[in-house]
Amino acid sequence: MNTETNSEGWTPEAVCLREKIQAKTAIIGVIGLGYVGLPLAIVHANAGFHVIGVDYSGEKVDQLNAGKNYIPDVSDEDVKTLVDQHRFQASLDYGILHEADVICIAVPTPLTRHKDPDLSFIEGAAQKLRPHIRPGQLIVLESTTYPGTTEDVLLPIISDGEFVVGKDVFLAFSPERVDPGNATFNTANTPKLVGGVGAVATELATLFYSQAISQVVPVSSPRIAEMAKVFENTYRAVNIALVNEMAMLCDRMKLDVWEVLDAAGTKPFGIQIFYPGPGVGGHCIPLDPFYLAWKAKEYDMPTRFIDLAGQINQGMPYFVVDKLQAILNRTQKKPLQGSKILLLGIAYKRDTSDARESPALQVLSILAQRGANVAYHDPWVSSILSQDSGGNGVTIESIELSSEALQSMDAVVITTDHSTVDYGLVEKYSSVILDTRNIVKDLGGKNIFRL
To answer: Which of 149, 225, 257, 268 could join 145 in a cystine, given CB atoms 3.0 to 4.6 angstroms apart?
Structure first.
């Protein structure tokens, strides 16, 4: 397709799109209505845009079109109001995105069983979108991935010889920075990185996000933005691994790792304190460093630091189970096999319903494999799909937290530090508590053991 450009590279399609974004007459499409996509859709609808959301789940689509919300970080009232005012709608049909002027792709980027990047969701979304692309659209990838994905994987699919990216359609990468349950930072006030394929795409994407987000930070390319995102999460993974290894060393040396960290944290410069736990969870930290390590192999660059951090963090659920086994042997002369264990918390972090990659799930699985009878209580997660000792899929439901339930257990393991749990009740009626989150440090019971 031939299009004229001015001296700054702005085609008529780009100029028209810029004017639509400025006037907020642009229609916004969001592919993937999960923890990233739905808050993104709602914040732009609240900013005055008409937003179309597309998802593969008919259940989610029906819920949203009925004005019902399923994401804790999104206001129930916002969803209902925006649906009632016809400023937000959800659909299973990619064809509806032909109407959209800006399309954000916010789909999962998991790992394969061999810890390699799985881009099938990105590729699948792009292939389904491809027949509905038209001149004058801006397409932005938000899914966390390795440097080069936007230009090497997504660009060939959306251009496919018919459109010229940078003239007919525009492409950018802007990584999500979602922290479920964070009461301070949300989609609207978390700085947004933007790297476009060309200066015009960067400017269009920056303009688009700045309509609803307080600070937008343009960078020179999608690769810079992609690398920045995986580095952010690798930084956290490496530092968490460091304190997890410190926790294991302090356990061996009979030192209180929590007191050590609190003491080190009094230094006003040169240190940022991270805390240990039963492992790492969520949609970023357990996955993203492997994306970076995988890409580094293309450049014959072994990422020893990153690989070691992954090994340490993946080993923490085993350390927790081993420690619990030792505690049961020492205090009750009981083996782990046959013991009744209650896990307090299945979500990967406090006060959220997000159980993706939660280390509590791994702890539960290891306990079951070693013959323990495991139950869990989580006020945010009502049920989970797990496996029994034979590898069969089973649904486990959260039990009620009561004095009777606690007294029936041989041990309680605090795997998530939810703020709504009655820890006084837990301390009073539990035989043994293994606290992996340091949440009951002030109770001082003799039955409490800490990581």
So the answer is: 149
